[in-house]
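Dear colleagues,

As part of the handover before I leave the project, I'm documenting each prediction I ran so the next person doesn't have to rerun anything. This entry is a single chain, and its sequence is reproduced below.
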Amino acid sequence: MVFKRLLAVFGVGGLSIDTVVETPHTRPGSVLEGRVELSGGDGEAEIAEILLALVVSVEDGDEHEGVEFARVPVASGIRLAAGETLSVPFTFGVPWQTPVTEAGGGSLPGVLVGLRTEVVVDGASDKGDLDRLHVHPVPVQERVLEALSQLGFGFRTTGLEAGYLAGTAQEYPFFQEFEFHPSDRYAHEIGEVEVALVPDPEGVSAVVEFDRRGGMFSEGEEVYSGFRVGHAEADRLDWAGTLNSWIEESLRRHRERFGGQYHGDGERYHGEEEEHGGGMLGAVGGAAVGVVGGLAAGYVVSEIVEGVGEDSDADEEEEEFDEE
């Protein structure tokens, strides 16, 4: 499959650029391959630089912002004669912590990842629309989500939260969260389960939040636990059985330690032992770090993100896919 997006470079005599990706389906740790095709206009054009960027919609409170989290240079110092055509190949390593947009045979609502082409001409940058990518989970992520479904946990939604999760090798100032309704077995005790699956080259770190229900004489509380699995274990484990035992053991240890009462100190997950209080939004140095904090680390909030997080824009800027 090949998909194209025409990027019009304004004021350069009709110069146009097509970004062609061999397939829009990918997964974290994989590589996107394609080419940037240039067609000259009425006169000679000098292109200072062509860049490709990955952009994701990130939740920051009640708003969604487009955040550019990875980019690669494609070419620089190009002089294109009138009517001349040029094809420039590229490869783009998909970061391990690129959010997943596909699971269970379909697209996940509320999460969009796109590839954007940027061209610099005469010191001015022109940014194209987003070409949507379909990011599938790595095997461990997929097995965990499948196992939760097999255990009767009902998928509710997924989203992106601004901040850091302690105890993981998180690279970017946001993380993906999967929310589930409890299975019948735990419905009397748990109101909701939130799961963050953070991959890296060696494996996946999982942080799980159980929202425990309150009783007549006790408040509800948040119980945290986590585990780490190497990529090589994806097809070696009985995932449903392993997760069921792990969930039961995590809740049992919490009952034994706290008897259903809230004794949280606001700490986040730091290892195998469960903690509680503080919310899924992690802390670094004791302070939550949001999208604005991420800017200080060199991550760029998009000035314009078309088709990401805005239904009206998505309707107007519907991506076109060509199958070949």
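The CA atoms of residues 1 and 324 lie 5 Å apart. Residues 1-7, 214-220, 261-324 have pLDDT under 50 and may be disordered.

All the best with the project,
I.
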